Amino acid sequence: MDNLVKNQEFTQRVAAYLERQTPGARGMTASVRRMMGGRSWDIFGVTAHWEEGGAPREREFVFRVAPPGGILEPHDPSFEFHLLQAYERRGLPVPRAYWLEMDPAVLGAPFYVMEWVRAEIPQLDHPRFEDPAEKDRYGRQFAEVLARIHTLDWRAEGLDAFLPPAGVPGGDPIERELAWCEQRMSGLDIPPTPALRAVLQWLHANRPRMRPEEVRLVYGDYRFDNFFWKDGKIVALLDYEMALLGHPMEDIAFTRMLSGWAAVHGDFARHYEEASGIPVDEALVGYFMVLKTAQINITVGLAALNGLNQGKVRDARDMAVVGGFHVSSARVLGQLLKGPAR
Q1: Domains in the chain, start-ordered, CATH in brackets?
Q2: 218 Cβ partners below 8 Å, 6+ apart?
Q3: 273 with 150: CB under 8 angstroms?
Q4: Report field, pTM of the whole predicted structure over 0.85
Q5: What 8-state DSSP symbol labels residue 44?
Q6: In this predicted model, what pLDDT tens digit does every residue of 246-273 receive, in sequence order?
């Protein structure tokens, strides 16, 4: 099996944990493989075999384990676990979250266990998208699921109890998100670039004011390769750690940064508006494209460089992340200086 974990002690701990969580299970064994998708968690796919009531059983799980270091420290699996449960209760397409374990003694670090979804992650350049009808089918559903996220009743789910940007000063979520970014930046052992500081100054000077009724659940990492597709629909969203409470145009902006033809604009933006009842404000989308670039520069690019310098980050792919995002603030600053701030 590809990427099979050879650490027998770890594999036995996984099997023992699953046996404790499965009443009636006998003779639990497990094969564990490292899953290479994502960089912010240690992700393991587990195939478990056991006997129950005299019959053989088999089931697949995904373990998301807090790494010893990484680009999104501190890692708190309870954040994603409770968010996934809220998504599921509201009928959003996510893997089912099974168990949360905060005791690091079990596997060496806190973790949670969720459903292993077997489906396809579509790629923007797949030949199927030479067919305009296929593009429309995928793009409309991509926009529609985002509308469902933005209309989720986050107050009824109590998401403000743990979603950022709580715990930082500010009059509205945008001001608090800027403070949150600066708080994250100040906790790093490396200085930000002068260009990044200038971009943050621009974001403060041009910050739009939000009314309380505009606050929505923001997915934070909504892009075209962050979902599974099967039988003509999105069956599971991926990567939940960037969620926050803020303005829905932040997600719209992010789709335009990384989702190519599937970005929420044109007909897809109109479909989003019809499904959500939220108008797409192009001026706000432009502002959030700058904010999102700065946020990722700090929480991913600079954090990856910080982790590499400290010897905590082990994933070589983070070198590419550093190279990409650490210079992006200079590019954004250059674009802003082409014309007066609005």
Answers
A1: 8-115 (3.30.200.20), 127-336 (3.90.1200.10)
A2: 150, 243, 244, 245, 246, 247, 248, 250, 251
A3: no
A4: yes
A5: E
A6: 999 999 999 999 999 999 999 999 999 9
